[in-house]
Design a protein that fits this description.
Helix content of chain B: 25-40%
Low-confidence stretches of chain A: none
Order of helices and strands of chain A: HEHEHHEHHEE
Strand content of chain A: 15-25%
Largest sheet of chain A: 5 strands, mixed
Structural class of chain A: alpha/beta
Low-confidence stretches of chain B: 43-57
Strand content of chain B: 15-25%
Shape of chain A: globular
Oligomer: heterodimer
Distance between the termini of chain B: 42 Å
Shape of chain B: globular
């Protein structure tokens, strides 16, 4: 991936995730504290109308409600921004809870005809990989 | 939907509030987290010392650098390691420990870590119960309370002495801080310590001898309540912005009973909104009443204390809620940071400072609002003139 090369060379920016798909939207799911990583880049993409941030509460995570919130957020953004292509980026809570992103992708595809790519960038797991739709 | 930020970037986190308070002390902050903390970016100025940790005048926090396997093994040893590394390399007078979201989820017993460290080291240590999910001012407030618990001891009371709790450089500029000190002195109060900005540790340790606390920001309330219960120090709450408000606070400080007069429209027909830190916004509301706005509501994305909320006031948790409030039919005036203008409105907009969100579009420093300066500012803004 081009942005993986950029990350390795220290030039990585979040908008690189959207470079290959100009109509795609980015959704970051994590805590308020997670936005300390590349917060200004996220702000720029929000201003351009290409990104949104979902910050579920602790109770949302522990009850599993955050999974429905992810789906609802993407459906809402899809309607408002008139796109069916999304990339999801997530913080360590989703990784810690072993979130089944395949289930979320299937639900979005089958029920709403929305394509979702998942970009894993977990500081806890030291992992960075893609799960393309 | 709730908790979805589409246009407005969210507020800084409670952990960043913790970081900001620690920065102004000689203590060490340990955050149980997987990655390091850079100084909070305000003007693009960064300072980072190499390696796995930073401890400079801009940030005095270290991370425990936990990894995936620590979820199974527990993070206690990593926190202790982080403390030991810092103890070997730097001089600090106390330590505060808190959890970031990933560590908070596995619920490490930070009090057990504290006890183990205290059995080995002769240094005050306290736990700050945060989880990275709440707002910046909440984090500051909990950190100030923890700081008070380890630094303040009971001392012989000095009559006419006072601590100022919650003063910070987000809502207060230097001129206002200087004016506050002069105002207290002119009115016969001896200032013992200021909590929330950079302050000498010895002065903080002397806070227990004060006869009174003045809480100027919501971040000072937890500490004030702790000091009242632990040392019997009473407190007065109010931000001395606006002439009338300042006089009322002075009366309260001097023991004059407060004459509470509240004008709230019966039908909640609000004509003005102030969005910001609760105590500052309350002061602006009071000043607006003198300018003819009798029905003003205060909104905030940050912590709000129920005791100081009035009818119509609201703690906002989402962008949608803000949008709904801004679209209120009768709203003629809105005072808040410019990024909050997420819908077209015909209401007049007056800008406030903005430093407590992830990516503010504008960089607006706090204006001078102490005493009658707020009234003059509002008068000029309401008449559409430039501030003098």
């Amino acid at each position: 991936m081009k942005y993986m090369d950029e990350k390795r060379s220290g030039k990585f920016s979040i908008d690189a995730l959207l470079k290959d798909s100009p109509n795609s939207q980015l959704l970051f799911v994590g805590s308020l504290n997670c936005t300390r990583h590349r917060g200004f880049q996220m702000g720029e993409l929000m201003k351009e109308g290409r990104m949104a941030i979902l910050t579920p509460s602790s109770a949302d995570y522990s009850s599993g409600r955050y999974i429905n919130q992810i789906v609802d957020a993407i459906v809402e953004l899809s309607k408002e921004r008139n796109t069916r292509d999304f990339t999801l980026m997530y913080g360590c809570q989703c990784a810690l809870l072993s979130t089944d992103f395949e289930m979320i992708k299937d639900e979005l595809k089958n029920d709403y005809d929305i394509n979702l790519d998942v970009h894993e960038n977990c500081h806890l797991c030291m992992s960075e990989k893609d799960h393309r739709g | 939907m709730k908790r979805l930020w589409k246009r407005l970037s969210p507020c800084l986190s409670d952990i960043q509030g913790f970081q900001e308070i620690i920065k102004n002390t000689c203590g060490l902050g340990i955050i149980d987290d997987s990655s390091n903390y850079k100084p909070i970016k305000r003007d693009g100025a960064h300072h980072q010392r190499g390696g796995h940790r930073m401890l400079s005048k801009e940030t005095r926090t270290v991370a425990s650098n936990i990894k995936e396997t620590d979820v199974i093994n527990g993070t206690k040893d990593k926190i202790i390691e982080a403390f030991n590394r810092s103890f070997d390399e730097d001089d600090f007078g106390f330590a505060l420990i808190t959890s970031a979201p990933c560590a908070a989820m596995i619920n490490t017993d930070l009090n057990e870590v504290k006890e183990e460290l205290q059995s080995e080291y002769d240094i005050p240590i306290e736990v700050v119960p945060l989880d990275g999910e709440k707002d910046y001012l909440y984090g500051m407030s909990c950190t100030l309370e923890a700081l008070g618990k380890i630094l303040i001891s009971k001392k012989e009371r000095v009559e006419g002495s006072i601590n100022v709790l919650g003063v910070n450089d987000v809502d207060w500029n230097e001129e206002d801080m200087t004016r506050l000190e002069s105002w207290l002195s002119e009115n016969g109060f001896k200032l013992i310590s200021k909590w929330g900005v950079k302050e000498d540790e010895e002065r903080l340790k002397n806070a227990g001898c004060a006869s009174l606390n003045l809480v100027v920001n919501v971040t000072g309330l937890r500490l004030a309540r702790y000091m009242e219960s632990a040392f019997g120090i009473p407190y007065v709450v109010g931000c001395p912005f606006g002439k009338k408000n300042t006089l009322e606070i002075l009366d309260e400080l001097k023991g004059v009973a407060k004459n509470e007069v509240e004008t709230v429209p019966e039908d909640d027909n609000f004509e003005a909104i102030v969005i910001g830190e609760q105590m500052e916004a309350n002061a602006i509301r009071n000043a607006l009443r003198d300018a003819g706005y009798n029905s003003v509501k205060v909104l905030s994305f940050f912590e709000m204390d129920k005791e100081f909320m009035k009818s119509g006031d609201k703690k906002l948790v989402s962008e949608d809620e803000l949008k709904e409030e801004l679209e209120g039919e009768n709203i003629k005036l809105i005072i808040g940071e410019p990024d909050y203008k997420i819908v077209a409105t015909n209401a007049k907009w007056i800008n406030l400072a903005n430093k407590m969100r992830v990516a503010p579009t504008w960089s607006i420093e706090p204006i001078s609002k102490f005493g009658e300066q707020l009234d003059r500012f509002l008068e000029n803004e309401l008449e559409g003139r430039e501030q003098i």
